[in-house]
Amino acid sequence: MTKEIRTKIEINASPEKIWTVLTHQENYPNWNPFIRKMEGKLSIGERLQVIIQMNNSSKMTFKPIVLELEENQVLTWKGKFLISGLFDGTHTFELIDNNNGKTTFKQSEIFEGILVRFFNLENTKKGFERMNERIKQQCEK
């Protein structure tokens, strides 16, 4: 079973500026309302530590592996809950240069596994949307 979340927002900034904000991990607690912490080397094959917290819910820690990394364009990681096949998520951030001083910021995740059917992902989608709004604010300052 799979489920997918897709969000996007147009930001009045270059892909380079957005990439700088997205990859400046130390600053996440100051602006990111969804991914509260991200640590680790942003390099293909490396494991990150990602802590998400939606609204007043409890924190969830994931240790995804970076699958794709193209500076100023795309960052993809894949995480799992306990073991592969239960509840796996492949998360992608994509920056598309609109060649007019604006960039389309896409955030998506494909969830796979036996437990996916039991999860309502509406709060997660709201978390993506809140993060999109805040990265827009951060980059358009």
Automatic annotation (TrEMBL):
It comes from the Bacteria. SUPFAM superfamilies: Bet v1-like (SSF55961). InterPro entries: Polyketide_cyclase/dehydratase (IPR019587), START-like_dom_sf (IPR023393). It holds the Pfam family Polyketide_cyc2. PANTHER family: CHROMOSOME 9, WHOLE GENOME SHOTGUN SEQUENCE (PTHR36166), SRPBCC DOMAIN-CONTAINING PROTEIN (PTHR36166:SF1). This is SRPBCC domain-containing protein. It comes from Flagellimonas profundi.
